[in-house]
Structures are given as C-alpha cells and as structure tokens.
Amino acid sequence: MTRQELIQQIREKQSFLCVGLDPDLKKLPQHLLTLDDPIFEFNKAIIDATAPYCVSYKPNLAFYEAFGLKGMRAFERTVDYLKTHCPDHFIIADAKRGDIGNTSAMYARTFFEEYDVDALTVAPYMGEDSVTPFLGYEGKWVVLLALTSNKGSKDFQLTEDANGERLFEKVLKTSQQWGNDENMMYVVGATQGRMFEDIRRIVPRHFLLVPGVGAQGGSLQEVCKYGMTKDCGLLVNSSRGIIYASSGEDFAEAAAEAAKKLQTEMAEELEKVKE
To answer: 96 an active-site residue?
Structure first.
C-alpha cells in the first residue's frame, strides 16, 4: 500500500485506528476454546466486527509464536482472511525484527514475500545494514522503533550524548538517510505526550504508529494535538481496549462498540485539521 492510498483510506473512513490482534488463549471467551482454531476464530470475529471503524490491523507475532505451529497457522490464516475480506486495510506484522544484513534479508522475505503484509516493525539498534534489507520492497513499509510507551523506554531511548542529543532523536535523524516518508514509519508511544512536538520537528511528514491509547493510558487528544499533520500522519493502535472489551459471547459486539467510539473521536480530531 502506498502512502497516498493509506491517506485516502483515512479520509474515506474518517479513522486512523489500528486494531491490535493480540490473542491470548487465557483471555479468549471460553466458548471459543472448543473450536479447532480458537485464535483464528477469535480474530475473524474481531475483524468482521471492527473493519468498518479502522484502517489497519496489527497482529503481534509473539501471541502466535507462543503456540508453535498451531499459532503460526492461525497467524497465516488471519493474514489471508484480511487480504481476502479487507483488502484495503493496512496490515502490520508487529515482529520487531532486526539482525545482521543476511538475516534481516531472510526476515524481509518471510514477511514481505511469504506472508505479503504491508509493514513490519523493526528494531534499529544494529544500524543501517540491519534495516535496509527491509526497504527494498516496493509498496512495503518499515516501522522503526523510536520512542516507545513502556516504562523502560527511558533506560536507553532518552539517554543523551555529549551534545545533548537523545538516542531516539539520533534514530530519527540517522534513519532518514536509509528510507523516506513513502516507506518508513516510526513507533512512538501514546504515553509520550508533548514529546511528539520534538519528534515532529525531526520527522514532520512521516507516519507514526502510536501504541498505548486505551489500556496503557495514552490520550488520543494529546497525541493528535502534538502529532497530527495535514495528512493525519498517525496510525493509533488499540489492542486490549478493543479485543478484550468483553470476555463473554458478546465479545465481537463489544469490540465493535469500542472501535466505533474511538473512530468517532478520531473523526472529530480529523475535522480540526480541516479548520
């Protein structure tokens, strides 16, 4: 999916919602556990219920790899279902890959050729040769970790060099030599608040994938105030707040309501950009 196609989807749906597909068997509704593939059946119901309100889905690979071959089969079925039934939705594999060049090349082949997803989250710690293999696929995106929403983000990402430049700022500046706003996004946690101002000074046009709204306590309004651009420039992810809105047989309906609520708030924020 191209940048312009993504922007068009956001405008048409009045939404920049990304739904995180993080299925945990311990949290799935009990009535699904008797099925042959409860993870896929859960995902399918969530997708059917939330597709009108979002533009993107983000399956987190950890929640599939934890169940071995069965889990990866569920991931594959989920991606196939999305590509067949939601062809205009942007699919992000949240795998946080990144290794020496030849290994990264194989990871890129896995996700961009075998699974044919639109984007992959990548860790930048090992530098240029660990990232560039992912950037050689036309229409595919690298979503580079920049400033995350977890408590430990301050341990490294906020550390300063002798010139006062923070590590996440160095990541943003250096990585722009590898890719551009047509094939690279950045992960920035919703809990970072006004730090979005600092980020936008460095990457004014790039899309940002923003986890942390909902269960992690991030504010959608604050993210939009400091991070939104005229093209929106945001994909705001919600996982637990949507997919686990209910643990009963009405889980899909509850997920739809939670997604619709966020979409309505997003439409209001997009209106502000037009003003």
So the answer is: yes
State the angle between helix axes of 251-274 and 3-13 in degrees (0 to 180), rounded to the nearest 10.
Answer: 100
User: What is the C-alpha separation between 122 and 160, in angstroms, rounded?
Assistant: 22
pLDDT digits (tens, 9 = 90+) for 133-175: 999 999 999 999 999 988 888 899 989 899 999 999 999 999 9
Query: pLDDT by residue (tens digit) across 23-44?
Result: 999 999 999 999 999 999 999 9
Report the C-alpha gap between 17 and 265 in whole angstroms: 10
Structure-token pair, residue 117? 């997803």
- Residue 217 is predicted with a pLDDT of 63
Residues facing 93 on adjacent strands: 120
Distance CA 94, CA 57 (A): 10
Which among 96, 170, 225, 261 is annotated as catalytic? 96
Backbone angles phi and psi of 147, in degrees to 5: -135, 105
The torsion defined by the Cα of 98, 103, 106 and 110, in degrees rounded to 10, comes to -40
Q: At a CB cut-off of 8 Å and minimum separation 6, what does 168 contact?
A: 146, 147, 157, 158, 199
Residue 79's nearest CA partner among 117, 108, 106, 36 is: 117
Name the pTM for this structure: 0.96
